[in-house]
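Researcher: Please translate sequence to structure tokens.
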Amino acid sequence: MVHLRLEKLEKYAQENNVPIMQKDGIEFLANYIKENNIKNILEIGSAIGYSAIKMALVDNDIKVTTIERDIDRYNLAVKNINDFNLTEKINIINADALEVELNDKYDLIFIDAAKSQYIKFFEKFEKNLKTNGVIVSDNLSFHGLVEDETKTNNRNTKQLVRKIRKYIEYLKENPNYKTTFYELGDGVAISIKLN
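Model: Translation complete:
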């Protein structure tokens, strides 16, 4: 039953151009959460609630806080979270993540929002990361354009690709984290806090 409802969300996202995490990427993330006993998660960018739902379903003890600024997507995410009976496990906030102040500490922070703002999201929320916590970043391949910018002639897309590359360099050079890059989904990075 849950499986069918998740497929319905995937289909909706595909038909309405809603950027949700690709299947092998979200499976990888769900396994990572399970294997590392992660319980408290912050997600930047809820979209329609798909990844928050997938993460919350990994284990009964998991709590997810997720932030979405687009009101239509937020409303749809709230509906989807209700449909899965996960309102006790998922707290969704309708706001621009850069304007949200949180005091909680999280085992994992998942960044999957405006790609041009990734460094700002990372720097703003790393204070909310527990010792040995992880920051997971999605879309670092951006449909293969990060590896090969010649696939597009669109100026805005090229600028975005450069920002993603800058973020990748930022992760590689950040002395406080050990980052591993995975060629899964649309490119995933796991940055483990070192102290």
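Researcher: Any highlights?
Model: The mean pLDDT is 90.
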